Amino acid sequence: MRTPGPHAAAACMLTTALATALLLGGCAPMARQSGDGGAQPSRIAAENARQATVSTRWGPLGPADRALLVQVRQAALWEIPVGREAARRASRPATRRDLAEIARRHERLDELDRGVAAQLDVPLPDRPTAEQLSWMSEIGGKSGTDYDKTAVARLRMAQGLLYQRIAAVRASTRNTLVRRFAKQCETFVHTHMTLLEGTGFVTGDTLPDPPAVTEAPEPGGANQPRPPAPAATSVIGG
């Protein structure tokens, strides 16, 4: 084999140096991206864990199932003290009576929640959220009828949203223990909403927004009411 001349050797060394520089240069930006602004592996792992479905003796336990246990607990952490305070401070007897009953019922619901969470190894919070603390402060800063109105408005809005989440989990969970718990929650929260409505302070602006729908029929005219629909058995035949 012929030995390369000095020019060829120099060209070969230059080519090798360029190739090495390109290789290292191509890797460097990736390393910087990972360190500067790329997704952190620990954060991705944590998010994957939160979204994971795990096996239990009662069936699959999904993220919505675990979230419901946390949401019921969060509701208890602020609604129990609000209900207890309202039993003393509310201006109307109906408000004092009904909110005190909600606090008592939340204590029983919290006991059920803690039992299910322990069986499914789901951690529960020990403090209200920042938003819930702001609601408690807002309610506590009122007096007279304003106190009643504010307490009922905040509680009814929160209970309406919780009821929607309970219904969604009750309808879809594959976990039989969570399904039974969701059914119990549904009964409790339905009663809470009824108690709040019994105070006379529930108005349209204390309710959550209606669910979005895509196939609702057009409203009928007030001057031309439609005839009542026939019984389903009369139109399906058989």
From TrEMBL:
Q: InterPro entries annotated for this entry? A: DUF4142
In this chain, the stretch annotated as Disordered covers 200-238
Q: Give the UniProt keywords, A-Z.
A: Signal
- Which parts of the sequence belong to the DUF4142 domain? 64-194
Signal peptide boundaries = 1-21
- What name is this protein filed under? DUF4142 domain-containing protein
Q: Which organism is it from?
A: Actinomadura spongiicola
